[in-house]
Every structure is written in C-alpha cells, then in structure tokens.
Amino acid sequence: MNEAQAAYDLEAVFLTPTGESPAQQDKSFTVRLKNNGPDRLPAGYKVSLNKFDNTGQGFIKQIGAFHEVPRLAAGQTQQFSFTETGPTVGGFFYKVFIGSAFSDTNNANHRPEVWVAYVAPANVTSAPLTVALTAGPPSGWTCPGEVTLNATVAGGAPGETSYQFIVYRTVDGAQVGLRNFGSAASFAWTPPSAGRYRLRVIAKRGSAQVTTNVNDYDVKMPLTMSAEPAGRSNTAVKVTAGVATVSCAPSGTTLHFTFSVVPGGGQVTSTQPTWTSNPLAPGTYTIRGYAFAKKDGNIWAAYNRVQEIGNYIVVAAAAAAPPSPPRVLPPVITRVTEILDFDRAKAAGAELMQAPEFITGCYSNVTRTADGTQFSLACPGPTGQALDWRAYQNFRLKNGWMVKSFSVLPGAAFNAGSELAAPPAVNTNNPAIRMHLWANGMTGSVITIVQVVIEGPQGTDPYR
C-alpha cells in the first residue's frame, strides 16, 4: 500500500499525568495508539519515546526500547509503557516517534509531546504504588493469534519496577501463561485455545508489591453458517455450521451446536453441525446458530457470537396448472375424383369459345361424351390446307375441388398426320381450367376427346 494514500489514521495520546513529578524517581509514560480507520495498519512500524531539553529541540535520549506497532484494525487501540529511571531536576519535553517515516491521512495527531518538570523529592509527597493492566486485542477477538498484556504503574517510592504476568483458564483454574518478574512492562501471550481467561499482573518496586486482574477475557473461535437457497416454497430449511479453525478447539472437548429458525421453525442443540428445521409457511425468517465446547458437563469455550442469516424468504407454492383440454382431431375428409362435366361447368358460368380460322366449308362441333368433351373439326375442302383451330375453356372450381389430371384422348376419326396438344403441365392445386387445342395441315377431319379429372371433398359440389 502506498502510505501517502493509505486510508488509515493512527492517533497517539499520552495517558500519563504530566506537569510536576519528583526527580530521582522512576517516571513511567503510557501512550495509547488508536487506528481511526477505515483500513488496517500496515506491518513493520515501531513506536518509541524520546526525551528533549527544555526548548524541545535538543535531543537527549530515547526512553526504553522500541515497541512493535501491531496491525490495528479500524477502531482498535493499543497501549505502550515507557519508564525513565531516576530523572534529574529540570524541565524536559517527551515526544512520541513512529518509525520509520510513518505517514497517514492525518500526520498531526500521531506525534504528541508533553512537558514534565522534575522537582526535588523533598518537595513532593509520593502516592502509593498502583498498577493497571490492559490487553490487546480486546476481549472477544477470534483466534488463533497473540495477545499483548501491558502494565502501567503509578506512584510509589523511587526505584526500578519489575513485572510478572500470569494467565489462568477460568473454567478449571489452570495456569496457561506465565512470564516471571522482569523489567519489561508488556507480555506477548498466545492462547492455547478458545475460551475464557483471567489475566493478572504483579508489579514490584522495592518493598512494595501490587496486583491487578482482568477477568472474563474471552477468546472466540470463528464460526460460519449457511442455509439452503431461499425462495423455495413450503419446505424445511437445512442449516450447516462450520468451525473454520479447528486448532483453536480446547483439547478433550466436544463441540455442540444450537440452531433455530424464528419464528416457528423450531430449535435444536446437538453435536451435529447440520440441522433441518420444521416445514415453513410462506414468509420471512431469521436463522440463528451458536456453537460451544463442553467437557465434563462444563462449557469451556464459546465460539464467536450468535451467527444469523436474516431475511430468509419462503414463497407460496405455485398454483397447479389447469388440465389441458382434450385434443380434438379434425374430421377425416374423404376426397373423391370425377371427370369434369363441361355442361355443368358451362351452366355455372364457364365460357366455351371456338375460334377456328375457317376455310370455306369447314365446321366444328363440341359434344359431351361419357369420357369427357369431344371436339370435332371437319374440312371437306382441298387437302393440304393449313388450319389453326383453338378451343378455350376458362372456369374456376368451387368448394376445395382441384384439377387432378388433364389428358387428350384421340377419337375414332383421328388423322395421324394432324397435331393435337394440351397445356404443358397441370397444377393440381389450381382450381382454374384452361384448354388450348390446335391442328395443322388438316386433310380431312379431326375428332378428339379432352378429359379433365378433378378431385375434391366427397359430398360437395365442384361447380357451385
């Protein structure tokens, strides 16, 4: 992360009273760091306390050792203690320094300074020795990780202070952490598992010794919970919980889970990490889960706070689809064929035209026969005369009738040397009828029968 653009704000504050203090007596300073967020602090920084002369410009010395600055999350705090042994009479500035080259969104609030005037001990009445204890991260954090215990002393006779830190497990009183007396006012402790602990510090200076405790310090284990997808209808919901870091479980304990669905979905506590609720009516529900470790009937550790899945929606079942109507098959239509009756067609409005280019003495005739319609042409005149004779029949069939076939049948007096022709093709989907016949080089007479077969629904009239 580019520190110049970091979205964290580290604030440093002196918690130790300043002003006049007795010279030649140890002077302790407590500095509290707080991340005003929103991002987590980067790693790799240290905090120190430096002493300057009465002008605030002349560096004299560093007080105590550097302290590692943890990666504080947004809103998280951490306290550090620095002790100067036997300061001399005079006025001095003390300044907090965070290195190296620490920069954030507000560089004005993490470099505080205080002024202290040390006076001769005869002019100061010593208060009794006291000690305070803090822990970071605060109670309720999620393991695994490390806890830093910080002690701060006040009052008492001049001299060097030594500290002892002890940690007990509340459920059975077992000692699970110890650092014997030493000059360091802090102790880094790694909890062996999730659970509740009592933190204790003993401060000793000369013949004076004081003790303080932090009770009910909780270390919790991460717990996750999931449910089958919402939006289903009238169904029970299956919930599953999981402990993400098994290494935090206290040795020899058994995990228990409590699940519930509110409202009206039921509740259960068991050693099983899954549970299926009662069937749920349509509505909106909250699913809750909690886990804890038990040993010999005692709860040894609580696993995080109650987890919730809110706004779990159950929808109403879809209405059943109406039955499909019975399939009605179209009636079977029987189609029949018959020979076109030109007389009926003509009676229904068809035109019959004869347009021969007659030679003197030639004549034509149209006759209805059993096989169709007979067209006759006779020319008793000179042989070898060319003749073009045409007959047209234009008519449109009715009621779905169509032309099935078209054929020209020769008659008994058909002259082989003459030419007869019909349309080149018949469109059987076309109800219109048109005929064109001709004869060339007539030397006698021509008789031919034109047969048109039509097809249509039985019981209907193709002409009207």
**Total helical segments:** 1
Q: How is the main sheet built? A: 5 strands, mixed
Radius of gyration: 56 Å
Q: Segments where pLDDT lies below 50 for 5+ residues?
A: 354-359, 381-392, 411-428
Strand-residue fraction? over 45%
Helix content: under 10%
Q: Kindly state the mean pLDDT as a whole number?
A: 78
Q: Which structural class do the helices and strands define?
A: mainly beta
| Number of beta strands | 31
Number of domains: 4
**Name of the CATH class of the largest domain:** Mainly Beta
Secondary structure elements and their pairing?
Blueprint: E1 10-14, E2 19-22, E3 27-35, E4 46-52, E5 59-68, E6 77-84, E7 90-99, E8 113-119, E9 130-136, E10 141-142, E11 147-154, E12 161-169, E13 175-182, E14 186-189, E15 195-205, E16 208-220, E17 223-227, E18 238-243, E19 254-262, E20 267-270, E21 274-276, E22 283-295, E23 298-314, E24 335-339, H1 342-347, E25 351-354, E26 363-369, E27 372-378, E28 391-396, E29 402-410, E30 432-433, E31 445-457
Parallel strand pairs: 2-8, 10-16
Antiparallel strand pairs: 1-3, 3-6, 4-5, 4-7, 7-8, 9-11, 11-14, 12-13, 12-15, 15-16, 17-18, 18-21, 19-20, 19-22, 22-23, 24-31, 25-28, 26-27, 27-31, 28-30, 29-31
